[in-house]
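Table S2 (continued). Query chain:
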Amino acid sequence: MVRIITKSQSFIGGIGGTIKNMGFFKGFTYPLRTFKILRETPGLLVYIIIPLIINISLGILLYWQLLNLGNDSVDILREYAQDWVEILSQRIPQILPYILPVLKFIFFLYIWLIRLLLLVIAGFLLSQVGGLLGSPWYSVLSEKLEKKLLGKLTIQEVGLLQDIKRALAFELKKIVLLIAFTVIGFATNLLPAFGTPLATVVGISSTSLLTCLDFFDPPLERRRLKFRRKLLLIFQSLPLSAGFALASLVWVSIPLVNLVTIPFCVTAGTLFFCEEIYPRFFQVQEEMNAEVNKEAN
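Corresponding output:
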């Protein structure tokens, strides 16, 4: 009897794990689903045109600067590699022919890791600065979409000064979080052999989290949630939110493509909120509040 229960629990656990994995892939598809929504609601495209112009102008400048930085970094790395080869050729010349292919492979791997990291950084900066500059249009875009999907729009009104203070505090807290992850990534990079790959994983994970936070923010900020609550909602929505975060980071990291994908990721973030976060964490309370206000009036 005990054996039967154990097998049943194992089977149910396996199903649960499969569902969780499917949840990750479902989250990954959200940016692609926005094309259908925008095609069905052409009126939303009005709030995308101006941010696209901003993103294209900003992206050209950003990639030009980072391309120069990447070339300089590769040149510095190449000089270090040549110095190491010369040192090895003087100290252990008999085994240099055997380890030279390995050193070339490591050098090739490091160059592409640097380029990958620069692409991620460029996409992250573009989403941050472009999102900040285009926020007035993205805010209206998110509001229109939430009202279409939920049939209502929830906004907790605050004064203009309070709104500005909250926006500044949000950006400052993101900077603090980014600095913390940067320190961790730098410390990880000091580890021998596997430091750079691990630091790359830390960098991608942290930028994915912050990118996800940005694209989820419009509907969350309309409800005036605290920064910690916004982060908590992301973790409570795992693995769906992880899939969405990674997909959004990929879309904003592809050169040229990311010049037009930020508005789609903003739309996807609101879609994710309406389908996944709102029913679990807000629907019951907001419906109760609406009933109380209705009775009070």
